[in-house]
């Protein structure tokens, strides 16, 4: 397997565009790392620098302790799976799987054994004699993964490999790729714009922002419950976190619709006195008040319902809190009607305060789970 280390890695293109800024990270043997972010955030550029397809402008990149900046792609021991399947249409599944090994001059008996073993892992054995045109999208993607897997390299790079699949196929392939990773154990770096893929598949996630800035690195649990800034808080979670903007006055969060005593949910309310802040909470974190009143560790919010969406096990409620639109997730049996006033509570442990100017979370000793 392989350990990777990035020290102040930057990518600047000849036209002056700075695609990646000071990327710093250590990746352990066998980790599954997801790079996520909006378009233009530098995640694919970072992957291409790892692969040796893009030069590193500044900084140092190490593989197993060896400086890899000038290593060729072949020397790095890397296999890559792209968004497009890039299968050879005139070759069968078996021939596609073994094509790279054929180019390396490996004996056909060895290739046949590796093809059979790889097909068994991926559930492709019944399709070895078929051509790509006779396969579904999910099967084609498995062949593409198999071409990387068969090389027995120590690093897998995947650039949005599931984006061409439909929703059901993506769910299936997510679990299959994760199972393959557990079986093979190769260090894997996976690029996606889909935060659900990142949350369900990765050991750790790197959240990047437009311009190539890393916002936070952590486990899915850490990013969900302890976002370090507004960007991460709004990016991780579906539907996204709700934000109410206001000001701190005498230890209270105040805006045109609510007034909350926030002394119990921040470590030092005096440090943000008079500052513009953002009160945040996740749609699924709300509760209905008991007897119409909040508990001592809850904030009561009054909203007016605009729209509801029944999703089966939950209902999304689109409502207004003063002049701000929010999304709430509730039990379908508790769903209000359009136009209703809807009272809900936000538990203290589910509430966050962010500084509006720095966009960083205000420190809190509350355990969030």
Descriptors for this entry?
single chain, 369 residues, alpha+beta, six-stranded mixed sheet, five-stranded antiparallel sheet, 8 helices, 32% strand
Structural class given helices, strands, pairing? alpha+beta
Gap between N and C termini: 34 Å
Assembly state: single chain
Q: State the total count of DSSP E strands.
A: 19
Globally, the shape reads globular
The side-by-side strand order for the widest beta sheet comes to 6-7-8-3-9-10
Report the radius of gyration as a whole number of Å. 25 Å
**Total of DSSP H or I helical runs spanning 4+ residues:** 8
Order of helices and strands: EEEHEEEHHHEHEHEEHHEEEEEEEEE
Overall mean confidence score, pLDDT = 92
Explain what the structure shows.
With 369 residues, this protein is of the alpha+beta class. Helix content is 23%, strand content 32%. The protein is built from 8 helices and 19 strands. A 6-stranded mixed sheet has the order 6-7-8-3-9-10, sandwiched between helices. Strands 13-12-11-14-19 form a 5-stranded antiparallel sheet, with no helix packed on it. The chain has a 4-stranded antiparallel sheet with strand order 2-1-4-5, with helices on one face. The model has no long low-confidence stretch (mean pLDDT 92).
Entry summary:
The chain has 369 residues and is α+β, with helices and mostly antiparallel strands. It contains 8 helices and 19 strands.
